């Protein structure tokens, strides 16, 4: 199956549609050939796409709709949509379109076009019916959102209600005696929103029904604010399966798509998937990935890889800054997976891991000479060294404890070599198994280490995630309102001091003034509820959380970042999506007060919903704000001047390294033996070949501590590790 993108090319100055273009981003051997202009779409709007066909509307009369196949140049007229206005027809969030099958000609009774809007379902047979049939769905009136999907010719409708439940309907189309169609809905499943996951820092989720290889999936995108791809916090995929041999369907989470790829329409068209034969011949198209069309101006495809939970932006036209609007996926073939004989033969010859392990020769590593064991140990990276000591008692007796190994003292035998390992902050996240932390050493990004969380409570382990880090400790969430601190280096869990918070699923921007080993620590988090800003705070040792009213009327909109606890002011400082500053102050008498500052005003004049990311960090006793544009085309840093109440531009942070991630940001001083690591911003992003991505404030270019030759002007084709945060290794 070949997959294309059709979009409106926009004039850079007037922002008006110039033309409609067709482009193949996965074309072999010619990935960047110019897009083809579709002159037949002049004066038209594309409102939906399905399996090679477009549903288009007249720009002057949106109710005048028809089907168009850009490959065969075939046009099929549809009845006039009298009930829908231009705003409704073109609204990509409230209206859904689907077709039961591909029409064979301009009059095909088997093909039914369906439009779903609120409680209405409109339907017709292209070239056969003179008017749209109308069905008033008798579903709960308190509907928050809905989506249509089709699998094996059967239409499904997923309806999300305000009571935290979702209903799945099977839509049946039948013909009456008078040859007219009738639509009926039958409930085939009920699930809670929480069954589809909930992620920290996300306030909005968008579900999509997807058919791939004859199976029905539900993919849920979690956004920080609005449906903008650069602010995706997580992606969850579920598959619908029959329950106990009945017509009822249940959902199970999918950890891997294997050789399938999903193509998500951030619009009102059905999303779809396909089989990708291994090995892939294109660097962009791969199995076990999700491809999302960006809905903002720049022509960008976002690729989400399930294996490492990374999100990578790819420019469609890297040599020209083409602006687009309303992009749609378009396919030129079906999506069924058909294995040929060679593939089946290849699959039959694959040995299971158990078979391979039985054939592998087992070596008794404990029989190695002691001096050889010591020579091996002194050349290992930190996490490898930790595992090496735990292999057997002999290895543990012959090697030094981790606290001694990590010391920079030249008296220690294992660090006498000139290639002694730097102890820098690491990237840590939870992926797949919720009881295993994935750790990446920034100096060796080609290796991922695993650290087990020794927690037996299943209510914690079911949906674990990292929400904040401070001085080597992680603040963890178990999604049952349960919060606890965990040190992945000492494997110490401190969960008794934190009472449950039932509103935790709605909190953002969490921070802490101290680690759990301190006596007077404070934990805070923000929640937006009914237009109000609520501040949740907890003082170590108190029986419960305190909720304080921050502000109303949306004057402060929390971003996907962490606050700064400024000890000199005994207050937490927050930065919202526009760059506005907020403060939560706690007096010695335990009086709590929130303030949204009018001064300093935001230092950036930019549409916050256009892809800007904000961070707040303390560096050398000062508060810095960092602003990064979509795909990093520009980066700006400012210092807060408390006396003058304004932000001052910063182009040099001297020997400091600024580590930035949505969950936690902080500053460190560069090691004396690596001064070139200073004056840089370090992101939770990796480049496939060049390692960790950082921004050099001196050259205003992206570079890498792993590759001196790397020099980039943006973050395209770099992988953002979702749910990942920086942590300082500590054993205390």
Structure description:
The structure is a single chain. The protein has 732 residues and is mainly beta. Among the domains are: 3-336; 366-421, no CATH class. 7% of the residues lie in helices and 44% in strands. The strands form ten sheets. The chain has a 16-stranded mixed sheet that branches. A hairpin with a 4-residue loop joins strand 6 (65-69) and strand 7. It starts with a strand and ends in a 5-residue tail after the last strand.
What count of helical segments does DSSP give?
Answer: 8
- What's the rounded overall pLDDT mean? 78
Cα separation of the termini: 55 Å
Strand content range = 35-45%
Supply the helix-strand structural class.
Answer: mainly beta
Helical amount: under 10%
Q: Work out the number of β strands.
A: 52
Q: What is the makeup of the main sheet? A: 16 strands, mixed
- Overall radius of gyration: 28 Å
Low-confidence stretches: 334-363, 403-420
Rough outline: globular
Keyphrases for this structure?
16-stranded mixed beta sheet, globular, mainly beta, four-stranded antiparallel beta sheet, 732 residues
How would you summarize what this structure contains?
This protein has 732 residues and is mainly beta. Helix content is 7%, strand content 44%.
């Amino acid at each position: 199956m070949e997959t294309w993108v059709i979009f409106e090319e926009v004039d850079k100055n007037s922002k008006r549609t110039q033309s409609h273009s067709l482009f193949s981003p996965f074309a072999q051997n010619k990935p960047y050939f110019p897009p083809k202009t579709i002159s037949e779409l002049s004066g038209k709007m594309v409102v939906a796409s399905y399996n090679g066909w477009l549903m288009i509307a007249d720009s002057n009369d949106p109710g005048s709709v028809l089907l168009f196949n850009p490959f065969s140049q075939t046009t099929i007229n549809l009845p006039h949509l009298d009930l829908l206005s231009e705003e409704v027809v073109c609204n990509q969030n409230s209206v859904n379109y689907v077709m039961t099958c591909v029409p064979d000609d301009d009059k095909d009774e088997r093909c039914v076009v369906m439009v779903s809007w609120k409680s209405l379902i409109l339907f017709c047979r292209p070239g056969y019916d003179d008017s749209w049939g109308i069905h008033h769905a008798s579903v709960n009136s308190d509907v928050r959102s809905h989506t249509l999907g089709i699998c094996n010719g059967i239409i499904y409708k997923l309806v999300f209600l305000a009571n935290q439940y979702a209903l799945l309907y099977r839509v049946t189309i039948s013909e009456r005696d008078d040859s007219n169609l009738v639509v009926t809905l039958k409930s085939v499943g009920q699930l809670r929103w929480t069954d589809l996951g909930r992620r920290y820092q996300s306030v909005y989720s968008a579900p999509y029904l997807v058919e791939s290889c004859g199976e029905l999936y539900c993919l849920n995108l979690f956004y920080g604010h609005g449906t903008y791809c650069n602010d995706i916090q997580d992606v969850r995929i579920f598959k619908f399966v029959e329950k106990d041999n009945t017509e009822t369907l249940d959902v199970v989470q999918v950890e891997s798509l294997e050789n399938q790829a999903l193509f998500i329409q951030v619009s009102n068209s059905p999303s779809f998937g396909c089989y990708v034969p291994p090995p892939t011949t294109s660097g962009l198209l791969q199995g076990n990935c999700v491809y999302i069309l960006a809905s903002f101006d720049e022509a960008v495809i976002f690729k989400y890889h399930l294996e490492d939970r990374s999100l990578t932006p790819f420019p469609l036209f890297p040599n020209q800054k083409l602006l687009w609007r309303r992009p749609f996926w378009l396919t030129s073939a079906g999506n069924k997976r058909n294995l040929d004989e060679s593939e089946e033969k290849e699959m039959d010859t694959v040995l299971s891991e158990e078979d391979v392990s039985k054939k592998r020769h087992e070596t008794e590593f404990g029989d190695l000479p002691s001096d050889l064991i010591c020579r091996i140990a002194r050349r290992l990276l930190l996490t490898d060294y930790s595992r090496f000591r735990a292999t057997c008692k002999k290895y543990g007796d012959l090697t030094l404890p981790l606290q001694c190994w990590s010391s920079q003292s030249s008296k220690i035998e294992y660090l006498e070599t000139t290639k002694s390992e730097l102890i820098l902050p690491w990237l840590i996240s939870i992926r797949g198994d919720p009881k295993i932390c994935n750790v990446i050493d920034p100096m060796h990004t080609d290796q991922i280490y695993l650290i087990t969380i020794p927690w037996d409570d299943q209510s914690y382990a079911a949906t674990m995630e990292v929400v904040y880090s401070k001085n080597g400790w992680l603040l963890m969430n178990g999604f049952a309102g349960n919060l606890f601190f965990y040190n992945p280096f000492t494997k110490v869990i401190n969960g008794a001091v934190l009472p449950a918070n039932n509103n935790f699923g709605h909190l953002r921007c969490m921070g802490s003034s101290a680690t759990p080993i301190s006596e007077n620590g404070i934990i805070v988090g923000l929640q937006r509820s009914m237009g109000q800003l609520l501040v949740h705070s907890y003082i170590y040792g108190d029986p419960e959380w305190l909720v304080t009213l921050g502000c109303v009327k949306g004057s402060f909109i929390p971003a996907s970042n962490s606050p700064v606890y400024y000890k000199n002011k005994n207050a937490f400082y927050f930065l919202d999506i526009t760059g506005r500053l907020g403060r939560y102050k706690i007096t010695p008498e335990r009086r709590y007060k929130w303030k949204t500052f009018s001064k300093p005003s935001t230092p950036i004049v930019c549409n916050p919903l256009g892809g800007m990311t904000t961070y707040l960090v303390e560096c050398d006793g000062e508060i810095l704000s960092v602003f990064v544009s979509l795909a990093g085309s520009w980066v700006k840093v400012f210092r807060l001047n408390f006396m003058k109440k304004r932000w001052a531009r910063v182009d040099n942070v001297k020997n400091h390294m600024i580590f930035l991630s949505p969950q936690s940001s902080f500053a460190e001083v560069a090691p004396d033996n690596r001064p070139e690591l200073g004056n840089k911003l370090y992101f939770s992003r990796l480049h496939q070949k060049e390692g960790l991505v950082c921004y050099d404030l001196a050259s205003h270019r992206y570079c890498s501590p792993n590759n001196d030759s790397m020099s980039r002007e943006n973050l395209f084709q770099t992988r953002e590790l979702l749910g990942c945060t920086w942590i300082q290794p500590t054993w205390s």
